[in-house]
Every structure is written in C-alpha cells, then in structure tokens.
C-alpha cells in the first residue's frame, strides 16, 4: 500500500450465506483472506467499514433479527470505524452516506472484499469507480454461488467470479488483484 489512507470495505460477510439454500459456492478460502485483510488493517490502524445486507425479502436468512444477519465469525472482535446496513446491492446506497463518510475523512481509495462477488461486491466496486474512487478488488477475498440465467442455463460460481473480474478490469472500475498482492504492497 502507498502512504495514502486506503479504507477496507467488507461487504455482507454474513452467516446467512452459509445456508444451503444458496447452492454451490466457490472459493472456500475467501473467509481466511477476508480475515487476513481485516487483521492487517487493524494492525496498521487503517479504516475498516463493515456493511451488512438487511434483506426485506420474507423468510430471508439475511433479515435483521435473524442469526444469518450477523457477521461471520472471522469478523468477531473487529474494531470497525463504520458499520451499517443496506437493502440494495451497492454499499453506496445504504443506511448511511458512505461517499460522504469517505470524503469527510479524505479517503479516495479502498480495498473491497466480501460476499457475493458478482452482486453486492461488484456493484459497490462499480459505483465506487464511477464516483472517482481508486478501487482495489480483492477477488480471492470474495465468493459467490451458481446462478441460473433467463434461459434456464446455469453459470457456475467460478464462471461468475471470472466474469466479475473481467467486468471490473475491462470496464476500468477497479484493479482486480489478490489478498497476497494487496498485503505485500505495504
């Protein structure tokens, strides 16, 4: 990392994503990589933002008040600078003004990790890129699930993972890299 302050945004790393209802997932090492990033940020005293998805869908394990709405154990004890919920994909459209919070602190860049790669993580990265932030997407600190398309065909979690990396890189929204690369750049 450079000498500039780079925030860490952890998106929707919640227990509800452990439910089998989501189907097959990829990247079983994502949680360990999220923890490695969080630990490094805490050790350096850098800003950490934790975002949780507060589903409004009836019966969702991500609804507030459900065990699944709680953060995963890897985030236990994290001293976050900001914690808030959202009901849509982008953390920039949550219960607080994330853009304003970052700008007030002079933060112009952030590293993004969390769940799901191709939904809330990708959307937050795209909006952040559109707002002018220097976004680093820690691909191996995310995971997603197989997903059926409108034609009934299924894309695997790995295919969606690669598509997100391609979308973010090709569209200039973010620098897509690994946890190891992020941690070694300090």
What does this entry look like structurally?
The chain has 186 residues and is of the alpha/beta class. 30% of the residues lie in helices and 22% in strands. It has 5 helices and 8 strands. A 6-stranded parallel β-sheet has the order 3-2-1-4-5-8, sandwiched between helices. Strands 6-7 form a two-stranded antiparallel ribbon. Pfam families: Isochorismatase (PF00857). Keywords: Hydrolase. Residues 7-148 form the Isochorismatase-like domain. This is Cysteine hydrolase family protein.
Shape: globular
Mean pLDDT: 96
The sequence of SSEs as H and E is EHEEHEHEEEHEH
Largest sheet: 6 strands, parallel
Q: How many whole angstroms does the radius of gyration measure?
A: 15 Å
Structural class by sheet pairing and helices = alpha/beta
Strand segment count: 8
Protein name: Cysteine hydrolase family protein
Domain Isochorismatase-like: 7-148
GO molecular function: hydrolase activity
EC number: 3.-.-.-
Task: Produce a short descriptive summary.
Pfam families: Isochorismatase. By secondary structure, the protein is of the alpha/beta class.
How are the elements arranged and paired?
Layout (H helix, E strand, L loop, with lengths): L5 E6 L18 H15 L3 E6 L28 E5 L11 H7 L4 E7 L1 H14 L3 E10 L3 E2 L5 E2 L1 H14 L4 E3 L1 H6 L2
Parallel strand pairs: 1-2, 1-4, 2-3, 4-5, 5-8
Antiparallel strand pairs: 6-7
Helix pairs in contact: 3-4
EC number: 3.-.-.-
Enzyme class: hydrolase
Keywords: Hydrolase
């Amino acid at each position: 990392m450079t000498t500039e302050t780079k925030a860490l945004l952890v998106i929707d790393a919640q227990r509800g994503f452990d439910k089998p209802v989501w189907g097959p997932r990829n990247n079983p090492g994502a949680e360990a990589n999220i923890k490695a990033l969080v630990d490094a940020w805490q050790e350096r005293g850098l800003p950490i933002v934790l975002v949780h998805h507060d589903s409004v869908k009836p019966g969702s394990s991500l609804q507030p008040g459900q065990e699944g709405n709680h953060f995963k154990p890897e985030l236990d004890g994290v001293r976050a600078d900001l914690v808030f919920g959202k009901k849509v994909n982008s953390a920039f459209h949550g219960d607080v003004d994330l853009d304003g919070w970052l700008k007030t602190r002079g933060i112009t860049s952030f590293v993004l990790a969390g769940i799901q790669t191709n939904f809330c993580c990708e959307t937050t990265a795209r909006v952040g890129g559109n707002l002018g932030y220097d976004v680093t997407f820690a691909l191996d600190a995310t995971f997603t699930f197989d997903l059926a398309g409108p034609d009934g065909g299924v894309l695997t979690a790995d295919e969606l993972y690669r598509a997100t990396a391609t979308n973010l890189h090709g569209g200039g929204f973010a620098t897509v890299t690994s946890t190891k690369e992020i941690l070694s750049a300090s």
